[in-house]
Amino acid sequence: MQRREETLLVRKKIFTFFVSWTFHATGVAITKWCLVIGGSGALWMAATLCFTVAFVPTSFLVSGMTINYVDGQLQISSMQKIGSFIIGGVTAAGSTYLAVNDYQSLLNLSNQTIAQISEDIKTIQRQHPQTDPWLSIAIAASLFFGAMFAFGVAGRR
């Protein structure tokens, strides 16, 4: 009897961990897609969605009752744990922060790359003014084919 209860407790902990991890990963993925598609204008919506989705397992964990069926009897017990609620809120906020911070890092890197390419183009145009239209066409084509190559590599996995 004791061994069975220990096994059930371990299974419950493992199940809770994987369910929580799945919700946090889903919240981060939703946030990243919202921010990539909607840009900075969707920041608050994306952050709210991430926090809400990541907080779902915590809300079920401390919903107030647990229903178990043990030894042919239905057992209902109260599980109002403020500590779990606080930890769940902190981890959901952490997931939200990491997702938004990842987007902001990507945005900063993109802006730096754009500024660097623009500066390099201006430098080349000053040094070689006769290549002005062809240089822009060549750079646009190389960026396009590079993106297609990256999509092709990413699509194989």
Describe the model.
The protein is mainly alpha-helical. The protein has four helices and two strands. A two-stranded antiparallel ribbon has the order 1-2. Helix 1 runs parallel beside helix 3 and helix 2 packs antiparallel against helix 3. The protein is elongated.
Quick overview:
It contains four helices and two strands; from the N terminus they run H-H-E-E-H-H.
**Mean of all residue-level pLDDT scores:** 79
Gyration radius, to the nearest Å? 25 Å
Number of helical segments with 4 or more residues? 4
- The secondary-structure class comes to mainly alpha
> What is the percentage of strand-forming residues?
5-15%
User: H/E series, N to C?
Assistant: HHEEHH
User: Looking at the chains present, what oligomeric state does this protein adopt?
Assistant: single chain
End-to-end distance: 47 Å
Largest sheet: 2 strands, antiparallel
Tell me how many strands there are. Answer: 2
The largest beta-sheet arranges its strands as 1-2
Q: What is the global morphology? A: elongated
| Percent of residues in helices | over 70%
Give the low-pLDDT segments.
none
Q: Which keywords apply here?
A:
single chain, 157 residues, mainly alpha, two-stranded antiparallel sheet, 4 helices, elongated
Which helices and strands appear, and what pairs or packs with what?
Elements: H1 2-38, H2 43-61, E1 66-70, E2 73-77, H3 82-127, H4 132-156
Antiparallel strand pairs: 1-2
Helix pairs in contact: 1-2, 1-3, 2-3
